[in-house]
Amino acid sequence: MRKDRRETNPALSTRKLKLGTFQTNLDSGCVMSELDGKLEISWPNTLTLAKLADEMEFEALVPVARWRGFGGATNPQGPGFEAFAWAAGISASTEKCGVLSTAHASLNHPIMAAKQSAVIDHISNGRHTLNVVTGWNQPEIDMFGAPMRPHAERYEATEEWMQIVKRLWTEDEDFDFDGKYYRIKKGYLQPKPIQKPHPPIMNAASSERGRHFAAKYCDLVYTVVRGGLDRAFEDWKAHIAAYHKLAREEYGREVRVWTLANIIQAETEKEARDFYDYYVKEKGDWQAALNAVETFMLDVNARNIPADRVKFMQEGLISGWNGYNLIGTKEQIVDGLAALSRTGLDGVILCWPRFEAGMREFRDVTYPLLVQTGLRDFS
Ligand SMILES: Cc1cc2nc3c(=O)[nH]c(=O)nc-3n(C[C@H](O)[C@H](O)[C@H](O)COP(=O)(O)O)c2cc1C
Question: CB within 6 Å of ligand 1 — which residues?
Answer without folding.
Answer: 64-65, 102, 133-137, 204-207, 210, 222, 260
